[in-house]
């Protein structure tokens, strides 16, 4: 792979020759993303995002490609990186760069910096690139241009701006200590280079930014913490907590992609097996339903007594992992916490049990502990599938090196689910861009009428007929005929 | 049935001789209500409700009997009426009056005013009785005693106090107009009699009241409206929106009692039948799951696009009622709205289709319209099951005269579900009684740590093992080790 | 209850005044029994059963009433007893006796000898009565008339004829020994009385009989044993093994009536509970599905490795009862074997665990052992629901005294399921009556085209559209266009 | 690809270098195939298949590789071809050729003639090769050696022998007529070449053969027809109708591999979609369960009223394909019949609806009709996934060119399921080889005790505890304690 510079705007992807294959997939995905296509129809003329320059950091998949092209159709300029080193679908990245009207020789699409299998250094280099709009500035004959919106997944792009500006204010980037993780060292190095080159780069970027829309629980958590600490630099819309995101993407997305990833990785029958799911939030609910739907016997663990009681009422055994460790064939973790699956658990599993993470970071499984376990040996069965031979004489199969296996072993959430999430993203970008006065610095969820709109845009494709309230009925329950229909604390 | 006065405190129930049978059922129910029993164990000594005088208006069932005796065990004095003319289980009412230590000849329990099959006049007379503590005053040698807490279901007790005080302030009870419903006429008559007898009765009662805890969506809705209008007279805790109530009682309760009611009423096989469920809120979700679990093909209707999309993602056909009316064998409505099932629907159903309401009021089905339909004839198959012969030549089977069939045709939600709801009720009563400073006039939900406590008290009975967070894990996700574990807007 | 003799033909039921209520239920049931109603339409004119005199021994329920009236509509004369002391629905029995055109004062229906709660002596007296056609003989002016067909459930009627003839051939009824069960002693007494009165009664009856159609696994098992021993006296059609019986009645019937019986008996929530199902045949499959559909966690036991593997593949834990005895809330047995639930199991269950038999005889649960357990005490909670207080200090709730709880605590299988079974019965009776040459002494299943016919008659009521083979397609798979479609060993 | 001849025995596979990757997968598969591994343990010493020379024609997958090496471990000599042009997993074929002890340079395994993507000419050449044991003869210094057993899937190997011998007896191979299918022309050509070269080849082969064990419904159907016509040349064991094959492979295999294939082919969300399943036999039951488990709304079609009624009782809508064609997102056919999905259906589907065959031959979907439809255009999205643009302006996505998509788009049934089927195969081969006297020419199913043995060998791996009958219980139901437990006509 080499830096491709055939365009006036630089980009870096695995292979532009994959663009045609990618375009086929985009075309099929568009049929599965009615929300985004409806926004193109509604806003393609009025172009509410004209003037918006969006720095996007989100898994560079086929679905994201449809998102990117929707943002462009609504008038935005866009640059893109992935938010995970393994999650890029190279043919999608290529198709986006080439664009619907470009060719491999004359790409006319969006600059993407992403490929499957980045190193951490490459990853943060890519993230840095989405904030460098010098080519666009040159093209526009401007002195400097920065992005004015971030579309983020997990908060890495937002982190880079905040840390960059913090270190610029301090005048230096701190040294790494012994405790500093490998990844944070890379971030420090990236920012140190930047500080040396342009001491006010991130300060300027931050000032220009009109806001961020954030996709995930983890990213949102960071934003609320930043805001609570008084350090948030620009308004943020929490897309994750739109009902049509958290209750759809997390639950129905995992229901689809967990068994898909297990199949592609291992071809192991789920029927009749004992599957253990750590966590019964939305992700765990989707995981458990999928496994049961394939005939597995599902056991769940939970720390929250309410979710634990839900799991029991849904018919699942609820146990501590260590209580049943020796019975487990398939171990799935989806908690968003760390050290959920520990080395002692891995050593207690059945021979060739499968270990899969659908939570967030790879530290849900103590991969560091496994890697340093004396006598443990790692055998690659195929990419993203490793047999770890343990000192016990037994092995476990670890998927995607402990990272998100629904992305690493499958192709992520399917288009229809992502259409819900991404329609929220686009509406959130429109909100921040067109109604800035409504959003002073802070963290917001989308108003319920937009959440309902997202759902509404996905009904026809499924053949759903919606019932309409009569004015009398609407008055009786005290809502407008056209919605929103529920109080804010309604749980769905 | 006649007024029973063997005690110094009057009461009125169907037949005290049913007390032994009722006591058997209370004993079994106690085994299924671990939350309430745990509160007896935790607070039986300290008696935090000592001094509390509770006017209770809630279906007088076996489960409520265990609630009442728990309130008493925690130190409260209690008087009780049912909140529905059909929902009283006469043996439970008898057992409560007799009390665990009393006898039929010397009842030593709680004054109850409730029997199955009250007229509306009798119903409001009973509700009035729970506010009359003159016997207790006499016993205590006091001039006057009023209740200081209401435990309400649907808001009838709260309504009576508010209307009573309003009319006392106005000096008169208004005349009914042509539009006044039959039930509101009865209320006006009840308050007119009261005003004539004691012109400041409700004003005194209202002043004494330290708050109300409300069980249902409908009652809560009334409270928010009252408060928004500035007319709420005392603080209210919204028990309905505790997760362990709304997501358990509504969903898992209906999942149990809908098929139970259908079976007891009709013995009709659900397998293979087309069942239509109006509304896919928590009640509709539970109804649809139960029917599918019995092999029915379930079609759902919704007005809210988010809930409609959930129904589709859960695999249900989502249609307007009129689109599929001729295919339906079992029609269930659980929306909380009015006129959901209209006369034109009833006329379009298959011959002998079953019509069942698990929402709230009988106006979910247009029973008034049916009753006035020329040529329609009502044939009683057995109590609470009526064949309505329609001018079309077809018949429909209407359960519980269009009222809540899970109460009218079955025995309501089972004990375990109600234990969750009622443990919330008791904790809410304790909050209002012991921490009044925390609750100025307004409508509150219980703090999340109490909601989690309710769940926690029900885990052992189901054999659930809860996983514990390590301090490091708790810090990582920013929660206390012992909870609460979720942000307030978490949807479960 | 007293012998009712207002008709020229004697009968004995609980109360003829229940007939109107029963007729209402028959009318509703007819709507749910499309197979039987279709036979009335098809054969009501031609009356293929003209001349047939049927002695029926089968649970005297509402559904059986529709069966009886179908047999009559097809030309048969019928007498009826129940095949279980608890299973009679008294209003159904009354309605059948009164008949559609009769009145309470002038019953014009079929002689029934059955009521809920017979003693064993009464039970065998009733069974004896269906073989006594002297009233019909008197009416017809004949010297003697016997039945020429048996419709049997469990084989009691068939047993009585075979034993009666055996003892008549031997010239005496043997004495009971110490090992003789109580029930068999009653049979011996019944036959002893008969032998004394009419020494050749059963010999004559047997000679007249043209065959029996048998409903159950147990009865069929007896028939195959009799035939293997060369003792079978007349041809038998095994209705049980029609696909539309065994795979429908057993599975879908239990799926319906098990939760119904649990609810009516105990009102205990199934959701979240641990339910154990002994046996994963058709009955066990239906039981497990019903319990899972209500949110229970289901554990299954099996002796047959194939059925055990099926249970595992369907997602159930498969364990020996003793391995998990202390976790069980609801224990269901449906094996058809004896001593499946033993006293040591009962003593190991959780406090107030429910014990329910949906297999066949009460000896699936060792009730005899429980009754003789020192220190065990039986407390009636309500009829058919008994708390057994055990020496362990814990109690169990035994339903229907260990007999079939779907009959004792609920109302048996619902009409639609029974319509399948009973349509097979009627077709089998027609076969034996109209084509005797095809059925020399032996045990037969119905030919597949009749089995398919039974299914076909039930499709319209469920809105099922059947696809038709083209002649080319039929030829391609080598079947007639109109069926039968499968080889005999096909398993469905 | 070129003919590889590094061994003394010729073989032909795609690439021997894939052997290491294949061996990894074999190792994992062995862990999932406890039945086969148990047979190796039981019979590895005694080698009951010593002397057997097996010509195998069955999908050359990883699972088949474990089967082949099990046959070898039991003493057999084996040659192998695939039974489908697309189903070979090239790494599995390579691993088998190399063998566990060989190397790429010195393969020491079994001669395989199979690769993914054969032409029909190549396919029948491969099938021919498994009957040519001249290399083995040369090695053994024998004049001629033929196979003495066939292990067949679909009957192609058996067909070749029968047709070959038929034409040798006739002295010539008939000419193809206009109606002759392309495939049968290839067969005729293959046999014509053979006849020219060795006029008595197939006659000798047929004489040597001691029997065939057949895997599939289709193959079994051919065998019964041959036998009925008096043309069957050697005994056959019908493995397909072992319960542990037909009720496991067909149902649970498809439940696994249908969604797997849909995912790998299209990544389309199944949740919320309308899926139509043609046929509700075992394959259709598994397909419908899988789709429902993923949240699809499933509609079923059937020609057999019994299966149609089962589908309805399981909660599915049962409709004719043409009645709902315009609502369908995913169309699955699994009937075993031809022309089930016709061109008029394809033209009526929703835009980009998916069309998938899990039945048997590609003529379930009228691919020939589609290919000759004027105006239809085929666009390859990726291998085995084609968009057919139709004259209607809509497209459909046809998977695996209308052939079995669970093999073409996924990796076939998973190891655990195949372990059941293949354990039956091995036991059947042992029966034919070691007990020829028991099997005169005819078609047999395995005795039930062997069927139960297959199940028994798979229980431990799933943690299943089997319950044991006491001698008293076994006697009570009239079976041996150790089984078999069911009558032959039991349907499971």
TrEMBL record, chains A, B, C, D:
User: Which CDD domains would you find in this protein's record?
Assistant: SAHH (cd00401)
Gene name linked to the record = ahcY
Give the UniProt record's GO annotations in the biological process aspect: L-homocysteine biosynthetic process; one-carbon metabolic process; S-adenosylmethionine cycle
A family per Pfam = AdoHcyase_NAD
Q: What is this protein called?
A: Adenosylhomocysteinase
Q: Return the InterPro entries for the record.
A: Adenosylhomocyst_ase-like_sf, Adenosylhomocysteinase-like, Ado_hCys_hydrolase_NAD-bd, NAD(P)-bd_dom_sf, S-Ado-L-homoCys_hydrolase_CS
Organism, per UniProt?
Agromyces intestinalis
> Which cell locations does it reside in?
Cytoplasm
Reaction equations catalysed: S-adenosyl-L-homocysteine + H2O = L-homocysteine + adenosine
Identify its protein family: Belongs to the adenosylhomocysteinase family.
Which GO terms label this protein's molecular function in UniProt?
adenosylhomocysteinase activity
Cofactor comment in the record? Binds 1 NAD(+) per subunit.
HAMAP family in the record, alphabetically? Answer: AdoHcyase
- Annotated residues that bind substrate are located at 61, 153, 215, 245, 249
Kindly state which keywords UniProt assigns to this record, in alphabetical order. Cytoplasm, Hydrolase, NAD, One-carbon metabolism
**SUPFAM superfamilies xref list:** Formate/glycerate dehydrogenase catalytic domain-like, NAD(P)-binding Rossmann-fold domains
């Amino acid at each position: 792979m080499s830096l491709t510079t055939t365009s006036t705007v630089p980009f870096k992807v695995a292979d532009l020759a994959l663009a045609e294959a990618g375009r086929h997939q985009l075309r099929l995905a568009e049929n599965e993303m009615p929300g985004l296509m409806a926004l193109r129809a509604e806003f393609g003329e009025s172009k509410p995002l004209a003037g918006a320059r969006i720095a996007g950091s989100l898994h560079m998949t086929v679905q994201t490609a449809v998102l990117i092209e929707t943002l462009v159709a609504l008038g935005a300029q866009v640059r893109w990186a992935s938010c995970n080193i393994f999650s890029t679908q190279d043919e999608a990245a290529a198709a986006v760069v080439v664009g619907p009207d470009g060719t491999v020789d004359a790409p006319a699409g969006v600059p993407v910096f992403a490929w499957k299998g980045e190193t951490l250094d490459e990853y943060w280099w890519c993230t840095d690139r989405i904030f460098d709009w010098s080519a666009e500035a040159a093209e526009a004959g401007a002195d400097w241009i920065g992005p004015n919106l971030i579309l983020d997944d997990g908060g890495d792009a937002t982190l880079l701006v905040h840390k960059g500006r913090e270190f610029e204010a301090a005048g230096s980037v701190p040294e790494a200590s012994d405790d500093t993780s490998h990844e944070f060292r890379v971030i420090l190095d990236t920012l140190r280079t930047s500080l040396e080159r342009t001491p006010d780069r991130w300060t300027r970027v931050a000032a220009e930014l009109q806001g961020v829309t954030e996709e995930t629980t983890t990213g949102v958590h960071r934003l609320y913490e930043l805001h609570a600490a008084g350090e948030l630099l620009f308004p943020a819309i929490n897309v994750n907590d739109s009902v049509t995101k958290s209750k759809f993407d997390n639950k129905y997305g995992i229901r689809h992609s967990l068994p898909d990833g297990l199949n592609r990785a291992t071809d192991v029958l789920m029927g009749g097996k004992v599957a253990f799911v750590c966590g019964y939030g939305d992700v765990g609910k989707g995981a458990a339903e999928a496994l049961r739907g394939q005939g597995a016997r599902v056991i769940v663990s939970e720390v929250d007594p309410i979710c634990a009681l839900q799991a029991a009422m849904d018919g699942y055994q609820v146990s501590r992992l260590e209580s049943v460790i020796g019975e487990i064939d398939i171990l799935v973790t989806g908690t968003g916490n760390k050290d959920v699956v520990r080395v002692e658990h891995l050593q207690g599993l059945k021979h060739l049990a499968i270990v899969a993470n659908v939570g967030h970071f790879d530290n849900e499984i103590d991969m560091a502990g496994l890697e340093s376990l004396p006598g443990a040996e790692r055998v690659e069965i195929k990419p993203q599938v490793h047999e770890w031979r343990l000192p016990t004489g037994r092995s476990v199969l670890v998927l995607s090196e402990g990272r998100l296996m629904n992305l690493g072993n499958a192709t992520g959430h399917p288009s229809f689910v992502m259409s819900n999430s991404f329609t929220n993203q686009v509406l959130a970008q429109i909100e921040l861009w067109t109604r800035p006065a409504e959003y002073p610095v802070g963290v917001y969820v989308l108003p319920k009428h937009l959440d309902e709109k997202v759902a509404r845009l996905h009904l026809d494709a499924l053949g759903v007929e919606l019932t309409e309230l009569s004015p009398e009925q609407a008055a009786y329950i005290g809502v407008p005929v056209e919605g929103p229909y529920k109080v804010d604390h309604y749980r769905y």
